[in-house]
Amino acid sequence: MPKTNQIAGARLLLDRYISALDQRDFQAWLNLYHPEGFYAVLRRTEYETGNNVLLVGEDLRRLRARFESGESRDKRRMLHSIAWIVEGKEEGSILAGFTLWLDGRPSNCGCYEMRLVQDDQGQMKIRRCTVILDGDVIQDTVYLPI
Question: For the chain, which domains are there?
């Protein structure tokens, strides 16, 4: 896929990603993933040092259970915003800066690192999403995907 098309496609995918989370439409969010997709959350410190200590690291089956549990535990209103999108270092990967607001207050910010693939129908899907949080101290329990 040409790189300009990759960024344009990634922008649309990210719009659907944050919209599904903000609307708590978790099935639509899961549908953005490749069947072998993986989701991880870690601090930038661990990311940059190669430390494998994850706050969250789950395949799609475990993510479904996280939604069921998280929905009852975290009722705060979510609003995600994307600041920028650039090509990643690996072929088929992108980086996107984000901020997450919970109940009208900034909660987390950082970067999504996504490895994107095309499925059998030619649709862009997320093979791996790594959420890299900028803060050294994570104030909130991560009940729901960021």
Answer: 3-133 (3.10.450.50)
